[in-house]
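SLATT domain-containing protein
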Amino acid sequence: MQSENETLPGFDAIVNYLAHCHRAVLDTLNLNYPGSQPSLAPGKRLGAVAEPDTAMLMELAAQTMALARTDMAGLVALVGGRLRYANRIRLAGGVVSAASSAGLLAVITQGLSHAALYMALLAFLGSVSVLVAQHYENSSAGGSSLNAIQMRLGNLQRELAELEGQYRLIEVTNDYSQLHDTVKRLNKVAAGLSEILVIYPAE
């Protein structure tokens, strides 16, 4: 049988996300809901906690979803821009490699004695460009590939969109039976977003 505390929504990751990225919002929540201050303190909560106030949970969820949506949009633009830059470097390297391997330089130089050397140099530069693009993609993503982070962001955005729909349904129907589930799922979204924000801190 579950204890009462096991049925309560965990939102440590939400609080930590707000504390690190949007401290003013967390401070306002603490002022508006002084009885919930122990639950709104950053860090892991140990021991029993009181039943969270429904109004506080609703505002916490609403604020977090709005802020997370904005942060995700900024991250998607940033990661997308870096991916495009890496792809341009990779494309340039591929073009150079293709030109050298096809012997185009030899045709242009009409078989001059230095043509082979130039072709070898171009092939080397093409290979280096591809390696530079790969290094840029991985190093700018904290060891993960930019493609992997872009995919994670897409998954987080889809989950957030579902939660926003669920939240609006709660608002319209005044049926709070799904509120705890919404907050728990939002907590996972906040945790995933925070991991990415370690690599790309919010400005």
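thats it. Residues 1-7, 139-143 have pLDDT under 50 and may be disordered. The two ends are 45 Å apart (CA to CA). bye
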